[in-house]
Amino acid sequence: MSKLTSISNPTAWLKEFQAALDEDAKIASERFIQKQPVFYVIRDYRLEIVPDGYGDIIRYTDSDDHSCDYSPREAIESIVEDEIATIHDIETSEEGEDFGIKFTEDGELDPSVSEDNCCWFLDTSEFAEHLTHHTLVKKAFIVPDTLFLTYAEAREHLRLNHYHYTKDAHTYAMTAWRSPQVSNLLGLLHSIDFDESIIKLKLDAQSTEGKVVRP
To answer: How many C-beta neighbours within 10 Å does residue 167 have?
Structure first.
């Protein structure tokens, strides 16, 4: 059984929560065009490997060090940094000339080299045999164990815990249309007049000792 966190005055808390739900209903209707009963989760994104041609993100990994994860441009520059080949070796190789691979005076890959040309070079050059080509797609998912009854609480959670998520994570409104119990519960919380109610907590509720709290 879930225990109550410290609520010194349950009636006051319920009234405050009711006001928050009423305000949230307006937000859900106007901002998210979401039907009641509404709840919120955190939606984040992750990269998943897909067959070539089914994704728009290309990455390369080092077969000797799988922690290395490169964009096509970074992958070519890593060949020089890891001393597998020199800039001159790359630029004058058959693949380097065919795909226009060239570097600036600062030793960086020239901005004019397209990503496609980088990929063609990496997929055919002997200098890149240790690099594995991956095609990725960014997919959204609902973060497990996230459920909030108001937009404000979901947004505050994300603000305080952003380090658990990627920079693309955001709140996401959903409708619990499959759950009549949730619909009825939220409907009651919207409708009960707590000024005319007596709130009695069960004896095993944390830090309440079965106290009857009158408005």
So the answer is: 7
For CA atoms 84, 87, 92, 93, the dihedral sign is positive
For residue range 155-169, list pLDDT tens digits in order: 999 999 999 999 999
The helix or strand, by DSSP H or E, that contains position 136, with its residue range, turns out to be: strand 131-142
Kindly report the pTM of this predicted structure: 0.74
- Chain centroid, CA 112 distance in Å: 33
1 lies in some domain: no
Total domains in the chain come to 2
Interhelix angle 72-81/115-124, nearest 10 degrees: 50
Query: Is 192 inside any structural domain?
Result: yes
Query: Is the residue at 163 inside a domain?
Result: yes
- Residue 38's domain spans which residues? 10-47+144-213
